Amino acid sequence: MENIKNLLEVKNLKKYFPAKRKKIREKKRYVKAVDGISFTIKEGETLGLVGESGCGKSTAGQALIRLIEPTSGEIIFNDKNITYGKKILKDLVRKEMQIIFQDPYSTLNPRKKIGWTLREPLVINKVGTLKEQNKKIDEMLDVVGFDSTYRKRYPHELSGGQRQRIGIARALMLNPQFIVADEPVSALDVSVQSQVLNLMKDLQTKFDLTYLFISHDLNVVEYLSDRVAVMYLGKIIEISDVDEIYRKPLHPYTQSLLSSIPSTKVDNEKERIILEGDVPSPLNPPSGCSFHPRCPQAMDICSKKEPIYREISKDHKVSCHLYK
Question: 6-319: what fold?
C-alpha cells in the first residue's frame, strides 16, 4: 500500500474533559482521554486500534468524526482540515465519515421501523426522492443479507446480529469513504461475530471502504486489520503492520497484551506476562512514561522523562526508552 494516498492524517490530537472540582478554589483539572496521538490511514486500509478499557480508544474514534469536539490537534481528511467548523461538519464529515457503534440494542430507535431508521440519513441530507430512497433502502438491506420485508420490522423483532447488520447498513446509506467501527462485534455471540466480520470485509471490498477498527479482542483485530496501533492512557505507544507487530512486538505493554492470546501467530511457548496494578487515572497520569509503574522492564529514566515516539524499523514506531 506504499503508493496509495493517505485518506486520513491525524496530528497531535487531544481530547481533554474538565473534571469536577472538589473545592471552589481548587485548580481546574482535566481528564486527558486522548493525549496527543498522531497516525495516518491509507485509502482502503483497516487500522486496528487496541488497548485496555479506559485507554481512550472510543473517544479517539468519536473525535475523528467530530461526534465530540477535539481539544486541539489536526484531522486531515482527503487533504481537507476537518478539525473545526460547522460548515465542513455538515458538508463533508457527516456524508463521508460514519460510525458503527458497539451496542446494537441501544443504537436503534425501538419505536421506529427499520425502514425509517435507514431513511433518516437520506432525509436529513436531502438525498433523493421518496422512490429513490426506497430503492436505496432495499439495496442496502440486500447488501447486508435481508429482503425488503425487513423495512416494516421493529428492532425488537431482530436478534443482536441482525440489529448490528442494520447498524452497518445505516452507516453505508450515504456512501461514506471512512467508517469508525467501535467494537462492533463485542456485544454479539461468538457464533455471530465471524458472520459480521466477514460481512465487513466483503463490504470493504465492494464499496472501497476505509476502516478504523476499535477493539480489545486481539484475535479479531488480527483477522481484520492491515496495521495495528496500540493505545495506553490516551497515547499511541506502538504502531506497525499487523504481521510485524504480532510477530515482533516491541513495547512491554504490547508484549503483555499479545502474550494473553491463546492462539495467534505469536509464539505460543512464550510465557504469559502478567501486569501488576491497574491503569493509572487519566486525571493524574504518571510522570515520564505513563506505563512505567506497571512495566516489568522499567528503568530509572522511565519515571523522569517521556520517551520519544520513534521509528525503529520500516513503518514500525514505538514510544519506549528501551529503543534509542
Answer: Rossmann fold (3.40.50)
